[in-house]
Amino acid sequence: METRVKRLVFALSVALLPLSRGSSVEDPSFFKKEGGVKTGSRLSISLSDLRPGDYYGLTVSLPDLAALGETDAVDVSISDAQGLLVSKTLHAGDPDLTATIRPRAPGEGKVEAAASGASERSHRVEVYLSRMQLSGKARSLICANPSSNWRDA
Q1: 139: burial class by Cβ within 10 Å (0-12, 13-18, 19+)?
Q2: How far is 123 from 126, CA to CA, in rounded Å?
Q3: CATH number for the domain whose boundaries are 2-138
Q4: Is the pTM of this model over 0.90?
Q5: How many other CB atoms sit within 10 Å of the CB of residue 137?
Q6: What angle do CA 100, 101, 105 make, to 5 degrees?
Q7: What per-residue confidence (pLDDT) applies to 45?
């Protein structure tokens, strides 16, 4: 339930952001993609046209908690054109990853997922990506991945 609430709040905040600027809700900088991954296989989801210097909100989640067995896990990694930005193991006790990323180079990024565990079921992986619309007037400090250790986070 908590994961669904997090995803709903994130999706609503991203969907309403263009309205505050007088633009349409159909923003090409926001998308949702999904795929399935089974134990022993890998899933790759493309994050096309990432721009260095821009900030992106990204959520990767396993929405079907009932499909996760006790030992099931999905290792998720998020990369830009230069390599790894952030990674996390998702499981029934912690089925999502939310991160702010700032690509280091232009080009395609990707979300990769690899499943492990005793279950032979396919696990659905959802990816939400939104380019953040920031202006100089915001006077906000945004920390973004990559951060290789807690001191840099």
Answers
A1: exposed
A2: 10
A3: 2.60.120.380
A4: no
A5: 6
A6: 165
A7: 96
